Amino acid sequence: MNVRRLISGTAIAAATALGLGALSACSSDSSAADGNSGGKLDVVASFYPMQYLAEQIGGTHVSVSTLTEPGQEPHDLEISAKQTVDLQKADAVLYLKGLQPAVDEAVAQSEAKTKIDAAALTTLEKHTGTGHSHEGEEAHSEKSGEDSSGLDPHVWLDPVRYAQIADGVSAAFQKADPANAAEYKKNTGALTAKLTSLNTSFEAGLKNTATKVFFTNHAAFGYLAERYGLTQEAITGVDPESEPSAARMKELQQEAKADGVTTVFYETLVSDKTAKTLAEDANLTTDVLDPLEGITEKSRGSDYIAVMESNLKALRTALGAR
Fold this sequence. Notes:
Layout lengths: L8 H8 L6 E2 L16 E5 L2 H11 L3 E5 L14 H9 L2 E4 L5 H9 L4 E4 L7 E2 L10 H7 L7 E2 L6 H18 L4 H25 L7 E4 L5 H6 L3 E4 L11 H14 L3 E4 L6 H10 L2 E4 L15 H16 L3
Parallel strand pairs: 2-3, 2-4, 4-5, 8-9, 8-10, 10-11
Antiparallel strand pairs: 1-5, 6-7
Helix pairs in contact: 1-4, 2-6, 2-7, 6-7, 7-11
């Protein structure tokens, strides 16, 4: 992800205008869905992980649209005039502050009745993108304009944190549309059960491995690595499109030998050129580890759960799971 695309000073100022509350909802004395065609809660999601939550929790009582189309790199998103209108008319907007600056700013300016910031429904942390401190990282961050907070927004790749977000989204839906609150609560329970099962599978599947280190194209998997006791080493840090230095490539080659790394992971929405170069130089294989920023025909699965299961399978193979 290009660090310039992380929440900018302008987006921070715009988001601050929302006030200290992470969520603003309309009065609960009437359903927010009143006046909509079909009587459904009109929800605009910023990108796929938010869309998935809205659909799973809302079920038949919501109409969900997304600002980020399948195959579109979410960090690059620019809001169109039509999308601005959609945000103004929406009953609820579900987004993740800090991931898409254009969305942060648009949401701050919109008059949507309910604004749900997924980042405020769990705990964000700082991740360097590597398991170790590397010379020049801080300078790179400052040069490229990365948000000074350094908070990693990729929380959806940790099923436990994702479930926490689901609970918060459910509470917001229940408040916005009390007539269907029981259904939202029921749907959330079913989703949480699936996420709990997924977490259990990851814990068991990654418990005994030959190595705990994995290489990725960019630093999207910090929360996943932390949850399951792994070490993520990203080739290009937070920016999947930047070129790593020759020193960094040599360092990774040496680490691959020392830690028994067998695989360099890349993702479907960005070029695999750098990953393949490293793999060739270090005599490693390549495979896909999907950050789930969108579902396309190239995705190894039709939804969040299926793709995460494919990610687990790829990690088990790469790490030499027993």
